[in-house]
Design a protein that fits this description.
Chain lengths: ~260, ~400
Amino acid sequence: MMISLAFALLLVLLPSAAHAADPSYEGLDAAAIVKLAEDSMRGDTAQMKATMHITTPRWERTLSFRSWDDGRNDRSLTRILAPRKDKGTGFLRLANTLWMYLPRVERTTRIPPSMMLQSWMGSDFTNDDLARDSSMVDDYEASVIGAREIEGTQVLGVLLVPHEDAPVVWAKIEAWITADAHAPFLFLYYDEDKPGEFELIRRMRFSDVRRVDGRNVPHQWSMEPIDKPGHMTEITLDEIEFDRDLADSIFTQSNLKRSEAAR
Amino acid sequence: MLLLRIAWRNLGRQPRRTVLTSAAAVFAVVLTLITLAAAAGSHDRWVEHIVRLYPGHVEVMAQGYRDHRTLDYGMTLSEAQTAALDRIPGIDGWAPRLEAWALAIPDRDDSTGRAAQVIGLDPAREGPLTRIGRFVREGGLLSGEPEERNVVLGRRLAENLGVAAGDSMILLAADYYGSQSAERFRVAGTLEVGDDTIDGYAAIVELDDLRRFVEYPGGLSHVAAFASDPSQVEAVRAELDRVFSRDAYEVLAWPELLPDLYQLIVLDDLGGYLTLSVLLVVVAFGLLNTILMSVLERVREFGVMRAMGVRPRRIFGLVVIEALLMSAIGLVIGFAIGIPLTLWLEQHPIQMGESATEALELFGVEALLVFRMHAGQLVLMAGVLVGVALLAALPPAFRASRGRPVDALREA
């Protein structure tokens, strides 16, 4: 599914119903949360319908899309539903390979590595965000930053630092999750210009936490690229379901091309 | 004035030495002038060669475009600006351009796309200004039928995509409103210029086709301006700076646009100066030798002057003035010979030998040694030679003005 880094974290960090119901969970420290999340992470699926609103200094536009994410088999399908110009455009990710279907020319193409850091559908997310899967559990080392209060909310901080040779974009990620519901709250993505000098590149905020299939899921996400003032991408989850079995036939090239499935 | 007269007379007392020393300075001046002019001439040609391939001497772009290179930082030309561009003194012409990154996709399923830089240009305007069209195989830069949506691909890009002239291909790019645009284009030809940014990435299309494709009517990423002559570049840049105000636009000349080329020229200049400084050191020692000799011969004379009450400072000045006079003679005669010679060479570039001609013409460069003289070279030359004379005169001048007159008289 899209925006996988945030979303993978969503899956990673969202405790399942069983854990949340367990009162002893309150006492766990962030490292244990991460460990717990890593264990519960593999084998999750999600499907959702979402609306993405992109704001730039010059224009604003709204897209809606539906996506199917199969974390068990490391694959996902995303299809644009609106506006009409983009309707039917689809993205199929199989492991780290990203395919795109263009209904206007009726062609499927593989996005080359050189274009992975380009904007995804004009948003502040990149193709790489879409293609990068949940392997972040393998790519990053998690450690505790601590607890603090941000904007009136008690949050726990987890620092994610990539392993030495991990093929990742970010030098470090600070993931702040709410202390009560353990839902994502604020993620800060950093780049490293010189060793030891980190620069904040993106700020992702999450709000409107609702309980879905035993998870506390924020339904409003917003992403601000720090180096582009006036730019912002906001995602609203319209529908979301977890842990349903997803058929193999969803994640095929022929399904990617079926624009009537864009509903 | 008196010192000057005495210095002049002193030089006249040893005419042969004076002439020989001055001749060395003349030789150095003439040689340096020709070398500097040859360097400036060939640097002009390097710049012309690259700038005229495609980039332009000066570019006008919206503030922010240089860093982001996206349509968000595009520009449009008002009628007043268009008119002003045509009237700029020293301009040979200008070309409107729109560039956008895109995904180039062969027109078959399950293929891998490639990053491409789509360059929208006006072939009629580029023709007289740039050479890029000459490198297109299979018939010119989008010439021929004014069919819609032709594209000329860099040769390596075409190879990577597996498409050839006549094939259909797809371009996918973000339009002006951030939405995706995908269209089929016909590959009209391929081009190879020997520069990877073009051969590996360029997809050249008609400006208006690209504007329609990205829904940006009248849109430009920049305007490329070409000076009629290398010496006019600065004037054109300054005038463009006046027409396009700084708060909204950025006007950049080739040293900023092509920093690699600029660095190369600076480096080449440094090498040239090193060689010339060796020549100047030889001249400096020649001067030092001459002046020291004349001072040693005149120990008694200086002693008499001192005994008559001439202050050491004035004797010091006398020796320095003699050295300056000698270098001034060298400079005047050197300029008198060197300037006309260099001017003549400017008009009569030297044709290089046959082997060099063949090698260079492969790259589309004429095998000519071109010269260009400018005022800066003359000022530099004069300054350096005066400096050298001063330095060479200091040790003998100290020697002449030092010591007691009695010792000097007794020694002789």
